[in-house]
Please model this.
Amino acid sequence: MVNLVWSELSPDDLDGIRELARVCLAADGGLPTMAADPSVRRFYDHTNGLVGRDATGDIVAVGALVRDHGTHLTVTGLVDPSIRGAGVGEELLAWGRARNPLVPLHLTVENDSEASREFAHRTGLVRVFAEDIMRHDLGDIPVVPRDPALIAVPWGTDTRAAFHHVWRQSFGERPGFTDRDLDAWVAFVESDPEFLPADSRLLLDGGDAVAFVTVSRDWIEQLGVVPSRRGHGLGGHLMARSLTALRKLGRQEVWLAVAEENADAHRLYGSLGFVDVGVRARYVDATVAAD
Model:
């Protein structure tokens, strides 16, 4: 075991957590944004957390809890690579479980690996969801023409309902799909301060909405094609068009996440120039997963 000095998380810890995130990123790979200020603040800018300091006073471990949809606690954390394997992760997990033992605990891993899977198995967690994180450097964007019979329109008050309809049709069959009504889904999409409505597009075939993409500053947030129209280049066109639009805005890279089991989408994105950079995963207590 490693002897650490533990204390409750506070806003004064953010600089030390950013440095710890950079150390973990250098060792593990994954999303560079993990060590950026917005990401660090999203996970750790509150007081429902725990930090561990070594003998020099540096933060070498941190864990934090958030309640997701009021039904379970999600824990996320960082452990300095130099002290992994010494039980620190287990201490953080035990702390999270003890905060509310009657509520099922979920663990979010921003860059899943063999080590995190071994940790989950050792501590009674089961992986229930994973998505590949992919990156495009915007250097070489293929041209994917649009069928001239199709019309592309941007996100707006008069098109949001059609976007929502295609979203439901595109993702409703996916494992773990969580439905949202129109108002809730629109609020979710527009709550992102970096959402780009003018560059988010809906494809119409006559009066039928058949495909859509929503875009933010550096991310392809969602791309979907109704099942009956897949395999005809609609998704490829929307993706290539979005990459071109973001490059014109001065972006230097673009990211997306695709469910691990969605092999067709992964192949499409790879053919358009995206490369894998990591895996984001969610684990739950084994007893919860069994239920």
About this structure: The longest helix spans residues 14-28. The chain has two domains: 5-132+280-290, 138-252.
